[in-house]
Amino acid sequence: VKHSGGCHCGAVRFEVWSSPDLHVFHCSCSVCTKKQNHHFIVPKSCFTLLQGVDNLTTYTFNTHVAKHTFCKTCGVQSFYTPRSNPDGYVAPHCLDPGTVRSVIVEKFCGEKWEESMQAHKSIKDM
């Protein structure tokens, strides 16, 4: 289905094609813990930024592979590019209501990121 979403103030809007049944990760890395992030991964080809490119700013740290993108006005991170899938996007908690049928949450040990990525069976293929 086509999900739509965006930031709190409405400056950033996106569409993402994905199943109505979401496979969501709860990551325990330092930044996800502080932001209380739950996220799901979609390929870049399934994500379209509709508006707000000029209203985005990006935070990086450590390896600088992940691009933590957020709205300059309201501060909400409505999507970002994860380190686990640098050609994918994460549309975490900012989907508009009405298109999500179910959510399965899987824990991901971000505190031991490298070990967790090696052990995970499917996250690299998402």
Helix content: 10-25%
CATH architecture: Beta Complex
As for the number of domains, it is: 1
What is the string of SSEs from the N terminus onward? EEEHEEEEEEEH
| Number of separate strands | 10
Given the structure, what is the number of helices?
Answer: 2
Which regions have little confidence, pLDDT < 50, spanning 5+ residues? none
Shape: globular
Largest sheet: 3 strands, antiparallel
CATH-assigned fold name? Metal Binding Protein, Guanine Nucleotide Exchange Factor, Chain A
Structural class: mainly beta
Beta content comes to 35-45%
> Roughly what is the average pLDDT, rounded to an integer?
84
Pfam families: GFA
Organism: Poecilia reticulata
Family: Belongs to the Gfa family.
Keywords: Metal-binding, Zinc
Compact overview of the structure:
Helix content is 10%, strand content 36%. The chain is built from 2 helices and 10 strands.
Describe the protein's architecture and organization.
The chain has 126 residues and is mostly beta strands. The protein has one domain (2-124): Metal Binding Protein, Guanine Nucleotide Exchange Factor, Chain A. It contains two helices and ten strands. The strands form four sheets. It has a three-stranded antiparallel sheet with strand order 1-2-6, with no helix packed on it. Strands 4-3-10 form a three-stranded mixed sheet, with no helix packed on it. Strand 1 (2-6) and strand 2 form a beta hairpin. The longest helix is centred in the last third of the chain and has 7 residues, at 113-119. The radius of gyration is 14 Å and the shape is globular.
